[in-house]
Design brief:
The structure holds 2 protein chains of 2 kinds.
Chain A (H helix, E strand, L loop, with lengths): L5 E2 L3 E2 L1 E5 L13 E2 L7 H4 L6 E2 L11 E4 L9 E2 L5 H20 L15 E3 L11 E4 L13 E8 L18 E8 L8 E2 L1 H4 L6 E2 H13 L14 E2 L21 H10 L10 E9 L18 E7 L5 E7 L14 E7 L5 E6 L11 H4 L29 E2 L5
Parallel strand pairs in A: 1-19, 6-8, 6-9, 7-12, 9-11, 12-13
Antiparallel strand pairs in A: 2-20, 3-15, 4-5, 10-11, 15-18, 16-17, 16-19
Helix pairs in contact in A: 2-4
Chain B lengths: L2 H19 L4 E2 L7 H7 L2 E15 L2 E15 L6 E6 L1 E3 L2 E4 L11 E7 L7 E2 L6 E6 L6 E5 L5 E4 L4 E4 L5 E2 H13 L4
Antiparallel strand pairs in B: 2-3, 2-7, 3-4, 5-6, 7-8, 7-9, 9-10, 10-13, 11-12
């Protein structure tokens, strides 16, 4: 059900049409992947349309282990409890709460029961593309350099029937087969404190903030350009927690509405009748000559940030990176299309578009943009008719707003 | 409240929120390195031209090794082609991804702040922070430099204003001058 009290139309350099009903890009900012159409249809689906990368929520659930090996020189994880077992309990509590932030979101198939019980491993180097989702606090010398705090490495597949290590065999296109979270253990300038220890350690990063964000990557999120979102690509300054701490009553308090909406889109629950609203449209430049000549075929503004605001509350409830659509057998068409899904019905929304040249730019969401196309240059033997080239993100437009109907 | 007023209110909220981020604004995976820190901590700094990349499994991970021709070296001894190793890449039907790891296309040029240990391929110092891509205006031929992490907002407590944290569209000559100054006054 669509209810748009007031739509904001951009004009001047860009024109923005709401309510367009073409099949559309459904990306907020997720890791996207194009199935390998060189493979038989039975394992590739035969379409070069990008799909969202995500964990398999059915068939046994998502297993996550964490390595209890902690760096001692320097000590990088600061806890209030200094006993050996107390430290582990305190860290595990943070992991559990960070996971609960995501599983507590209503209207998604990701639920507490979707996760297998969190397990511990004493193995120091537990992270690796072995089919086990792992969190490592003391795995040295991976890709770290000074300045790198933590990262999540996600392994996805573009065809069915593939597995990595001991992972399940892929039964969905874009299935995440392994995702590991690495914390830099080798720098005395990078310490992480549990919520209990943060106040006494103002130079440390809040472990819960960083971990909750990284778990978003583990689930398939790229970054969000929404300021209040957990997936906004900038962490709070050391010694602080930027959002709300989770509570027993509201374990997902740390998330923003954009995170919740994105999760509902990424892990849709067909039983959810509340968040079925959808707003679609296209964004065109006022002057068609403003479109890039290369690659050919670009007919709309690509890479704009389209935001839905709940009219009553003023809250940003969802946003997407617009600019493309795809109809099987593909490839993606860069026609300015956007789609914001997972919106609560019965609400009115204001929609606006902005260029990705503010606090977040396209380099922060490369996994949502770069993988939209494959071609014979990137992949030998790729069928030409299903190949495309991702155009540069258009940041040269400005948007003027006026009330809609 | 009109839409314009609401947006203004949201901006104020945003600016107030970013006040918490302040000078050490960082990507989730990255801690902010100032340009002088990059220059000081880099093993080598050079203008490189990407020749090509190879991806392979090694020690249970997919790694990409990208080969570069050295166009000009600003710091460190780089006698021959440079290999940069980054985690992630595609092998067969598996795609290993990490947000923020720089990737390069053949023919692309960039100033790269290299970090490494003897006998190992280089890494890019601070990932996107140590990557400064060169763009050439096809009409004028003017080259400019933009840092991959140029989006990081930094709050200046003196002026109480936010400024872009990185380098964006800086002419090559100005960038090289800035780099020379940073290298002369390097701070670790």
């Amino acid at each position: 059900m669509k209810k748009i009290l007031k739509q904001v139309f951009t004009c001047g350099a860009a024109l923005f049409y709401g309510g367009w009903a073409a099949p559309a890009a459904q990306a907020y900012a997720f890791n996207m992947i194009v199935p390998d159409v060189r493979q038989p249809v039975v394992v590739s689906g035969g379409s070069a349309c990008p799909v969202k990368a995500r964990q398999l929520t059915s068939g046994g659930g998502i297993a996550i282990q964490w390595s209890t090996a902690l760096s001692t020189n320097p000590v990088t994880i600061v806890t209030q409890n200094q006993t050996a077992s107390g430290r582990l309990t305190e860290i595990e509590q943070v992991i559990t709460q960070s996971l609960a932030a995501w599983t507590a979101v209503s209207g998604a198939t990701l639920m507490p029961a979707t996760l297998k019980p969190l397990t511990r491993t004493a193995t120091q180097n537990a992270c690796g593309s072995d089919g086990l989702n792992s969190i490592c606090f003391d795995q040295a010398d991976m890709a770290f350099t000074p300045g790198v705090v933590a990262f999540t490495r996600v392994v996805e597949t573009d065809r069915l029937g593939i597995q990595v290590g001991s992972s399940a065999v892929a039964t969905q296109l874009g299935q995440i087969l392994d995702a590991d979270i690495y914390f830099n253990p080798s720098s005395s300038q990078m310490t992480y404190a549990t919520p209990q220890a943060l106040a006494a350690t103002p130079t440390a990063y809040d472990l819960e903030s960083v971990l909750t964000h990284e778990l978003g990557h583990l689930l398939g999120f790229s970054h969000s350009a929404v300021w209040g979102a957990m997936m906004f690509p900038f962490a709070p300054v050391p010694g602080t927690f930027s959002g709300m701490r989770p509570t027993t009553q509201q374990p997902d308090a740390a998330l923003g509405d954009d995170d919740r909406t994105g999760l509902r889109v990424l892990y849709p629950n067909t039983a959810d009748t509340m968040h079925t609203g959808s707003i679609r449209g296209q964004i065109f430049p006022a002057n068609p000559l403003a479109l890039p000549a290369s690659p050919p075929g670009v007919t709309g503004v690509f890479g704009s940030h389209v935001v839905a605001v709940d009219t009553a509350s003023g809250a940003v409830v969802g946003a997407t990176i617009g600019g493309w659509s795809c109809i099987a057998p593909g490839p993606a068409q860069f026609d300015g299309t956007y789609e914001i899904d997972g919106l609560a019905v019965g609400h009115n929304y204001t929609v606006y578009a902005e260029a990705l040249n503010g606090a977040v730019d396209s380099s922060s969401i490369s996994n949502a943009i770069v993988p939209l196309c494959r071609n014979s240059t990137t992949d030998a033997g790729w069928p030409p008719l299903q190949g495309c080239v991702v155009p540069p993100v258009n940041i040269s437009f400005t948007a003027r707003t006026r009330p809609g109907p | 409240m009109s839409f314009v007023q609401r947006r203004r209110f949201l901006w104020i909220l945003f600016l107030a929120g970013l006040g918490l981020i302040a000078v050490v604004a960082s990507a989730t995976t990255l801690a902010r390195l100032r340009f002088e820190e990059l220059a000081g901590q880099a093993t080598a700094v050079a203008r490189l031209r990407c020749i090509g990349a190879q991806t392979r499994w090694e020690n249970g991970e997919i790694w990409t090794e990208t080969l570069f021709e050295v166009v000009a070296s600003q710091k460190g001894l780089l006698p021959g082609p440079v290999t940069i190793r980054t985690m992630g890449g595609s092998v067969g039907n598996l795609h290993s991804r990490i947000e923020g790891v720089p990737a390069f296309r053949a023919g692309e040029e960039a100033y790269v702040f290299l970090w490494g240990r003897e006998g190992e391929p280089y890494r890019v110092l601070g990932w996107s922070q140590g990557t400064f891509r060169i763009a050439r205006d096809t009409r004028t031929g003017v080259e400019t430099v933009t840092q991959d992490s140029a989006d990081a907002p930094i709050f200046d407590p003196r002026t109480k204003k936010f400024q872009r944290g990185g380098i964006r569209n800086l002419p090559v000559a100005a960038f090289e001058l800035k780099l020379r100054k940073a290298l002369e006054n390097k701070t670790d």
